[in-house]
C-alpha cells in the first residue's frame, strides 16, 4: 500500500529545495567564525563542491524510479543490511530535527524573549511542523513558493537598504585565512545545508515528472545558493570584522538599517524569514523520518507516528546544554559526523548499484 | 475514577442502544411511507376527493372546484389560491373544459390524455398516478385535475405567486456593472442566468430537497466546459442530503462542503447573476435554491473572495491596484490588532523611537494590558456591527454615532483605552469590510491572532500565520486546491490573482477548474488603431 | 462496538485535557510580557569614573530615562517638568551597576532605544573595553548608537537642557547627524568603533562633546575627535586636524573652506559639495609610502570682497587656494597622529588589504613603523558653481 498518496510537481520540488537551503541562512555564523571575511569564497566553493555530490544523489534516486531511500537501500544492500543502513539514516534525520529545533528555540529566546523557557518555543514550532507533516508533503510543497519568495525578497530588500553602509574594502585581503581553516569552513557549509539535500531522496519518488527532477533540484540549489551569497556579502560588507564575533551577523546587520528614523528596526523581517524557511527544513526532515519509520515497520500510514516523533525530538533537543556547546558541535563535530552519511554511503551505494546493474535485475524479475 | 469511566461507558451504551432503536423505527416508518406513496388513485372521483380532502382539505387556501366536462363527465379541480394564477385557471382550464363539446358519443372509456392534448391551453401539464405526487404538485402551485372514471390525474403548472421584484442586491453593490440581483423565485433566477448565457450548452438540472419543504434546487453548468466528474460529485453530495428542511442555500452549503470544521468556506455565494454567470463560464457549477437570492458556486478558491465583478468591467491598472489594496486590507484586518499587541507587549524594540514615545505616553494611565484592551475592543466592535445589522432603520444613525464617537472618544478620555488602540481597531474594522466574503472568517482569525500575540509576541503571530497557511494549503474545494493558483503554482493562472491582466490577454480559463475547454478567446485581440498600411491604402 | 465506546470516551477525555491546558496557558501569563508603562526607556547613558572610600576606581553610570507623559505634552519644557530623568548609580562592574538601578527606579532599564553612549574623560583614559563588551554582547543594546567622549564628566553632558529637543540625548543624536554638514567631528557609531578596536593597528576614534556656556545658558558643542590607543584615550584632534582626518578616510560629506580672495582683502567661502579620497600603499626601499589622492568639488558660498570671480583666472586661483588649505589640514592631521603614534587613518588596514604579504612582517611592529611612514598628498579641486548670483553683491558697476 502506498504510504504517500500525494504528488508533487517539479516546480514545487524546486521551491522546496530552495526553501530548504534558505532555511540555513542563519547557520552561516558557524562557518564565519572559522573563515572570517572569506566566507563568500567558502560559500561559492561549497556550492560548487556540492554539485557533484548532488549529482550522485540524484542519479541514485532516479535509478530506482518510484522508490524512496529506504527501498533503495533495501535493493542495494539486501534486506538486512539495507534495513540497518536505513535505520542509521533515520536516526541521522531525527538528530537533525532535534538540532534544528534547538537552534530555532535558541534564536528566538536570545533575540526576542529571553525569559521564556526554550521548551515552549520548541513545542510551538514542533506543533506547526507536525501539523504540516500530517497534512502531507503536498501541503508544504505548495507553501514553499510563497515562503521562498518572501525570504528572497527579504534578502534583496535588506541588501538594497544597506547599500549605503557597505564598505567593500572589508572583503580585502582576499583569501587570507590559512588553507586548513578555509577547508574547514567550506566543509561546515557543505554539511549544513548543502549536503542535506540528500534527504530529498525520500521525497523525489513522489514527483510526477521524473525527467525534470534533476533540473528542478539544480535550480532550487541555485536559488538557495544565490540567496546565501547575497546574505553573506551583505553581512560582511556592512559589519566588517564585528561579524566574526557576534552570534548572529544577519540580525546585527539588519539592526543597522536606519533610514529617516522610521524605516528602522526591521530585524523582525529577518526573524520571520528565518522561521518560515526553517519550518520548511524541519518539516522535510520530519517527514523523511516519519515516512522512513513507517516504511521500515511496514505500517499502513505514517500519520500516528507524527506526534510521538515530535515529542521525542523535543526531548532530545533539550539535551543540548548551552549555546556554546551547540556551536562547538555544529562547527567541529557535525561536519565530520555527517561525512559517512552524505559522502561515503551514497557514493558507495551508487557504485554498488552500478556494479550489480541493479534496476535491470528488477525488471527481469518483474517480467 | 474507575467508576466514573464505567458510568461513562454505560451512558454511551445506552446512547448506542437508543440509536439502534431509532434506526429501526425510522426504517419501519420509511417502509410504511413507501407503501403510502404507492397508493394510487382510484377510478372514482368521489373516493379520490375523499382521500385528498383527508390530507389537505381543511386548509384555508385549498380550493376544490367541482364541475362538469361537457355536461357529462364530472371533474374536480384542486388548487391553492395564492400560489396559482387565477386567470390561467379560469380562462385556460375551467373555461375550455366547461365549453368543450367534442366528446365522442361512442362508448369508449374516456382517456385523460385527450384533455391534455386537445382541451387544456396551458403550457406545462403532467400526468400522475399516485397521491404523493399529486399532493406535492398541488402544494407547489399546480392545479390538480381529477376526472371521474380515470385513475390518473393531471397536474397543471399554474404557479404564480407574489415575490420581490428584481432589485439591486443589498449585499453586493458595484459602481459599474448591472444592478440586477437574484430574488427568491427559482424560475426568475434561472431566467436571469439564461439571459446572460444564451448558449445551448447551459444545462440547468433540477432536483428537490427537504422532506417537508420540498425545495427546488437547480444545478447550472456549462456542458463541455465544466468537469463532468465535478457535476457528478455535486449531484452525489446533494442527493445525500436527507433532512427536513432546506430553508436557504446556506443549508445546502453546510451539507455539501468539503471541510465543515474549517473556518474558511469552500463554497462561494453571490447575489448577482453576472458574477454567477461568469463563474459558470469559467467551468464552475452554480447551485440555485428556491426561496433565497443567494446562489452557490463550486468549486471555490481563496482568490475568489478578492475578486469582484467590477474588476473586470474596469480597466486593468485600476483593477489591479484595487486588488492589491484588497489583499493588503485583508492582511491588515487580520494582523493589525495582533501586531499592535505583540509590539507593545513584547517587542518594544521594534517600534521606531519617536513613535514609541507617543504610544508609551498614550498608555501611561491605562489599567489594562494590551491583550485585554485588544480583545475588549474587538468584542465591542463585533457587538456594534451586529447591532448595526439588526436594528431598524430609523434608529440606525443614532446607534452608530453613539457607538463610534461617544464610546470610543469617552473611553480614551476616561483613560480606559489608549488612543492608538482605538485607531488600530477602527482601521481593522474598516479594513475587514473590504473583502466581504471573508468577514466572518477574518473575525475569528483576528481573535486567534490576538491571543497568540498576547502569548508569544511576534513568534506567536508567525506560528499562527504558518498554521493558517498550512490549513489553507491543505484545503480542497471539490478537488481544487484552495490556494491555487498560488500554492500549487500555476503561472498562467496568476493572470487573475493579485493583479488582473488586460481582458484581451486572458486567453485561458483557470487551469484547475476549466481544463476541459481551456481556450476562452482567440489570440491577438489587443486593441489598437488601424495600422499605417491600412491608413495609406485608404 | 466496544472499541467505539472506548474511543469516544478517550475523545471526551482528550477534549477535557486540551481545554484545561488552554486555560492554564491563560492564567500563568507569559514570561516576557512587558507593558509599555513598565518600561524605563533609556535614551542616553553616560559612564564616569568616580573615587570611593574603599575602591579607587568605581563606575558611575548615568542613565537618561524618558518620562513619556511629558514627551507628548505639546511644547518643550511646558512648565518646570522635564521630559527626562537622569538616574545615577555606582558600582564595580557595568552589569552590576545596571542591575543596581532597580533599587532606585521602579522599572527595569530598557535599552533598545538608546541613542548615545558618552564616556567621561577619566574613564576613557582608563580603558573602556569592558563597557564596550557589555554594549555589544547584550541583546537589548544595539550597534547603531553614537559613541562620544565628554570633555570632563559624562553626567554633566546629560544634564544640559536642550533648546530644541526634549531630551539631551536626543538632541545629541540630532547634533551628530547634522555634523555631516560641517564635517568638524567624526561621528562614530558603536559598530565602527568596535571594528577599529578589533583591528590590530587602527586607532579607534570618537566624537568629543563639550559644554559651552554662553552666559547662563549652557549648550552642547560637538567638536574635535578623541583618539584612542586600543581602548584607552590618549589624545585629541582639534577641528583642523579632524578635517584632515576626515579628508583621508573619505568621510567628508559637506563643509566650508575659507580662502583668501585672489586680489583684494577678504575671504571667499567655498562650500564643499563632494569629496572623495583614495589611499594607495607602496613599499619603496623598505619604507612604507602612502599615496593619498583627494578629489573635491565645491561651490562658491559667499564672498566678502568685491572681486570679480567670474573669470577663469579667479577660479583657478580659488582652486589653488583650496588645494593649499586642504593639504595643510591633512598635514596637520598626519603630524598629530604621528605624534600620538595612533593610526587613526586605518593605514595599517589598507596595507593589510592591498599588500598582505608585506603586512605580515610589519604587523607586530606597526607602532614603530607608523611614525616613519611617508605620506604623499595630491589634491584636485574643482569650483563648479557660483550660487544664485554671478557677481558679488558689493561689486560696483563699471
Structural descriptors:
heterotrimer, B: 538 residues, alpha+beta, 3 domains, 5-stranded antiparallel sheet, 12 strands, C: alpha/beta, 9-stranded mixed sheet, 13 helices
Which band does the percent of strand residues of chain B land in? 5-15%
The neighbouring-strand order within the major sheet of chain B is: 1-2-4-5-3
User: Could you give the count of β-strands of chain A?
Assistant: 2
**Within the CATH hierarchy, at the fold level, what is the topology of chain A?**
Amino acid/polyamine transporter I
Quickly give the structural class of chain B.
Answer: alpha+beta
Average pLDDT across residues of chain A?
87
CATH architecture of chain A: Up-down Bundle
> Largest chain interface and its two residue counts?
A-B, 36 and 28 residues
> Which bin fits the share of residues in helices of chain B?
40-55%
Helix/strand-derived category of chain A reads mainly alpha
Rounded radius of gyration of chain A (Å): 20 Å
Mean pLDDT reading of chain B: 85
Based on CA atoms alone, the radius of gyration of chain B comes out at 31 Å
What's the β-strand tally of chain B? 12
- DSSP helix count of chain A? 14
Q: Summarize this, please?
A:
Chain A has 367 residues and is mainly alpha-helical. Chain A contains 14 helices and two strands.
Outline the structure in words.
The complex is a heterotrimer of chains A (367), B (538) and C (398). Chain A contains 14 helices and two strands, in the order ααααααααααββαααα. Chain A is mainly α and 367 residues long. In chain A, strand 1 and strand 2 form a beta hairpin. The mean pLDDT of chain A is 87. Chain B is α+β, with helices and mostly antiparallel strands and 538 residues long. Chain B folds into three domains: 113 residues, no CATH class; 115 residues, no CATH class; 152 residues, no CATH class. Helix content of chain B is 49%, strand content 12%. Chain B contains 17 helices and twelve strands. In chain B, strands 1-2-4-5-3 form a five-stranded antiparallel β-sheet, with helices on both faces. In chain B, a hairpin with a 2-residue loop joins strand 11 and strand 12. Chain B is globular, with a radius of gyration of 31 Å. Chain C has 398 residues and is of the alpha/beta class. Chain C has two domains: 204 residues, no CATH class; 160 residues, GMP Synthetase, Chain A, domain 3. Chain C is built from 13 helices and 13 strands. Classes of the chains: A mainly alpha (367), B alpha+beta (538), C alpha/beta (398). Chains A and B meet through helix 1, helix 6, helix 7 and helix 11 of A and helix 12 and helix 16 of B.
